[in-house]
Amino acid sequence: MINYDFFTAQLRFIAKKTEREPGGVDDTMQALERVINALQIHKDSFDVGANDLRVTARALAGVAGFLQQHILPEAVAAGHSVGEEQIRWTIETCMSMMAKLMSHAELNKDQKDIKIKLPVYPTERV
Q1: Per 3-state DSSP, what percentage of the chain is helix, strand, and coil (rounded to 5)?
Q2: Where are the domains of the chain?
Q3: pLDDT per residue as tens, the chain (126 positions)
């Protein structure tokens, strides 16, 4: 089984760094925490309830944006190639999952749960 600990660690880092505000930001971080908790159990997949599709999509897009703007430049500047590769993978994966969640929400009119499976990390053998 592929080890996605780096991915959940990045999600957890952002969830902890984000200032909570009642409403939108707090709801988004709660959705992110549900993803983290599910990944701790299932390792490579998580379920998203119909009522949480859009907020979870926003949470994942926020992760990608934060990593792109704040963390990736530091990894590149430090010459940390493994960290850079993992961060880039997380950005791409979060954006892909966000698109899948939003498409699913639109196609199913926010009425159907979905299971999201993480893609294979590119350096792992299948």
Answers
A1: 70, 5, 25
A2: 5-117
A3: 578 999 999 999 999 988 887 777 889 999 999 999 999 999 999 999 999 999 999 999 999 999 999 999 999 999 999 999 999 999 999 999 999 999 999 999 999 999 999 999 877 544
